[in-house]
Amino acid sequence: xxxxxxxxxxxxxxxxxxxxxxxxxxxxxxxxxxxxxxxxxxxxxxxxxxxxxxxxxxxxxxxxxxxxxxxxxxxxxxxxxxxxxxxxxxxxxxxxxxxxxxxxxxxxxxxxxxxxxxxxxxxxxxxxxxxxxxxxxxxxxxxxxxxxxxxxxxxxxxxxxxxxxxxxxxxxxxxxxxxxxxxxxxxxxxxxxxxxxxxxxxxxxxxxxxxxxxxxxxxxxxxxxxxxxxxxxxxxxxxxxxxxxxxxxxxxxxxxxxxxxxxxxxxxxxxxxxxxxxxxxxxxxxxxxxxxxxxxxxxxxxxxxxxxxxxxxxxxxxxxxxxxxxxxxxxxxxxxxxxxxxxxxxxxxxxxxxxxxxxxxxxxxxxxxxxxxxxxxxxxxxxxxxxxxxxxxxxxxxxxxxxxxxxxxxxxxxxxxxxxxxxxxxxxxxxxxxxxxxxxxxxxxxxxxxxxxxxxxxxxxxxxxxxxxxxxxxxxxxxxxxxxxxxxxxxxxxxxxxxxxxxxxxxxxxxxxxxxxxxxxxxxxxxxxxxxxxxxxxxxxxxxxxxxxxxxxxxxxxxxxxxxxxxxxxxxxxxxxxxxxxxxxxxxxxxxxxxxxxxxxxxxxxxxxxxxxxxxxxxxxxxxxxxxxxxxxxxxxxxxxxxxxxxxxxxxxxxxxxxxxxxxxxxxxxx
Length: 671
Prior knowledge:
Blueprint: E1 8-9, H1 10-13, H2 24-54, H3 69-89, H4 108-123, H5 141-150, E2 188-195, E3 197-204, E4 210-213, E5 217-220, H6 229-238, E6 244-252, E7 255-262, E8 268-273, H7 278-284, E9 297-301, E10 304-309, H8 311-315, E11 331-334, E12 340-345, E13 351-354, H9 361-367, E14 379-383, E15 394-397, E16 411-414, E17 429-435, E18 441-445, H10 451-457, E19 471-473, H11 475-502, H12 509-526, E20 534-535, E21 557-560, E22 566-571, E23 577-580, H13 589-595, E24 609-611, E25 617-619, E26 634-637, H14 646-660, H15 664-670
Domain Polysaccharide export protein N-terminal: 178-249
Keywords: Signal
GO molecular function, one term: polysaccharide transmembrane transporter activity
């Protein structure tokens, strides 16, 4: 459907011939217009073809289509002819009635305009400059001072809104247009009709604030509220049509040019749509610069200041009463920043805040979102840059928060007390008991309750309990093991890096490089290992109870395993396996090595070790071969390496961690 066929009487859609006696002149006018239009179309195509044939062919020059005055005149004549045809079709009386929004019928020309508009919006840059030239706000001197004081960076409040690259703060033209929006020059209005006259058109408000509809004439829309737009168009169309329904929407908003000046990160001219507010434009400009104010932006229109914008009022309170919608040639001025303070510690939002008047500590804490759950509620500490006062922090009690005025450069520290560590002997704890006990479960324990008392709470040991293999895992031990383990790996990494310089084994260069890569890969896997936090208990193989006097910590986990019936032999042996242990006929460790077929030729017999069920480690130098094997023992035979450098130690450690899953305590014992 073309725009010339937009508003058509219903009888044309239903292919019914009207009575000639009613309107004979209308049909004759329609036929004349149709013949004239067809003739002009044929002549236009013929002329275009002749011009193309007559044009010389050039291979050295590239030509681009340029709209000529003849094209513009022809387009103008076509529009006038289209309007004339619409006049002949729209002379049909009907009765006006209210209706619902119809389904929009889009013609080919409208689709082309929409595609062109979308392509233009994608390629358009908001800034009147290369986006690569935009920059971010650098920290000011006070930010640097606070960062050095706290040992970590602290940003100005609001700065995190504009730091991410590519964030678009311009209000989208596709957003819902508020009812109070005033239609202005350049806005595009889509109008659709159903009923006695059907079709759809898009019209752009001209420089006089009007649109033109065939058979209706000019309609003034500039200044009309978006909420009143449908009613205004219905009244205008109703002067010529009856019994119709009208649907109206604003499809495109005009662009306006505004200026953001002063202490902005990226000051300059901006092209935005007519829904953009001052707040949007400030953020599009990168926000206030290091020395710019977040609290005193000025909006100037026609040389007169019309708004004083406090961005904190929007960011903290959500109040956009002064966030004015921009108009063409508006100027936003960002003045220098007001005095600043910092709030750090146990608050909801640590930041550097800008003052606007005589704010108190209470106001500053409100800016920071208030204290969090771990904060001390009775006081805060203030560090001042005033050289005339007493050096060091000042303590301000809670009752003075509302009367103590903060000064430029103050740093307010909110202390935490909820996460303070208490003495162990004063802590009540929750302990988890699992395995071979009568009543496994979680038990609340009073302070200073020993380990054996918790076992009694669990009903005592079952008949199959193996007390010697009991495991006690603890969070604090896990943290300590992890720290020690990482330190050991760091030392290994340093030794590994220096190993090629110290190597005297005579290997050729390529072989050394291969070993170095393999060692690095092993070290990377070692860093993935996690200590289990197991605490090795001083128990004997025939113990019937756990040691007394061990104070429990919150989160402790006690696992009593069943009595094992095997001993494992792994590593460089002919037949790695687990062998059943006969406690009536005890054997030594060397006997189980022989059951595994003995050691391979590549085995390092000097470093054989045994890990016992309680987590302790027994090495050959401690007489491991001649020790009596115990239930749950694990014997490991490492492989001999070709040198005694760092590669040997890493091979041992990696074998232990990945084949046996030992704790960091075992690793420390090997070292």
